[in-house]
Amino acid sequence: MDMEKVDRPFEVGIFTLADIMNNPVTGETVNAKQRIHEIIEAAKLADEAGLDVFGVGEHHRLDYAVSSPQMVLSAIAQATKNIKLTSTTTVLNTVDPVRLFEDFATLDLISNGRAEITAGRGAFVESFPLFGYDFHDYDALFEEHLHLLMEINKRERITWNGKFRPALRDAEIAPRPYQEQLPIWIGVGGTLASATRAGRLGTGLTIAMIGGTHERFLPLINAYRDAGISEGFTNRDLKISVSGHGYIANTMDQAKNEFYPHYSHYLKAINEQRGMRSGLLPRNVFEQMTGLESVMFIGSPQEIIEKVLYQHELYGHSRFMLQTDIGGVPFKKIAKTIELLATEVAPVLRREISK
């Protein structure tokens, strides 16, 4: 479809899922306490360096440090001044939308209007039995919870009736956020129906790019925009964020050599968490994943700039989010990637895309 030019500032950010894995190079493993404190420190660095967004994910497993993004983001809000704070993502199927809204409205007040919600369906299923939900209701729960969350976001009193939670009768939802409404994004991995839903509702669209080429995700973006325009939303209303794994160093060779042990270790662990036996990612396959057409963001600042600009030509998105702290990458290297992203990559992206 034709894409109308929208004059919107381009945002660059960092996000974490807070995995707890041993460093395959040194064999060391940080505990949950250290991991959370390093995440807060990473957010401080990102804010001080001038990045636009910081995201924290949600998991309910002992090999992840964060089960409540809003708690960690509240701590970050007190340690930062300007950076936007979002979940990446909130598992909306298994959380009460009323409680979720109240938590993020409180975060918005604490942060002076910097809170956002990115809602997704989650890659793991532990939260279903943990909070008393039936996995067979996976899609229906997400649909109902999303609609309720969006209604609560619009008004401070609500009357509502659904299938999965008690009815609300002229209920006051408090507190209200500092912003007029909380920005809500829907996180999508590869499902056209999810992208279409986001467009139909006029939420932002966050695409989690785990692997493949940039062209692979174009159908999601087209479905999102088509659905949004057909519902009367404008291109200005329809915001797109893309996220991916990556690592930035002074040269491509340095980036590949430093990141490969961690990334291959991370993929092996993820496959095992999902019940699949897996060996380490072969180095030659990893090399192929660093090319311009791949959605892996690995290389020098210039190579990251070229890849994001290439991607922007295809998508016309307004936000790029990088995940780099995976597979036991030591904090000092995470800090270096944040520094390079903020000082050498982001200014060029903002300048070039604004043209």
From TrEMBL:
Residues 11-316 form the Luciferase-like domain. GO terms for molecular function: monooxygenase activity; oxidoreductase activity, acting on paired donors, with incorporation or reduction of molecular oxygen. Keywords: Monooxygenase, Oxidoreductase. GO terms for cellular component: cytosol. It holds the Pfam family Bac_luciferase. InterPro entries: Bact_Lucif_Oxidored, Luciferase-like_dom, Luciferase-like_sf. This is Luciferase. It comes from Ornithinibacillus halotolerans. The lineage of its organism: Bacteria, Bacillati, Bacillota, Bacilli, Bacillales.
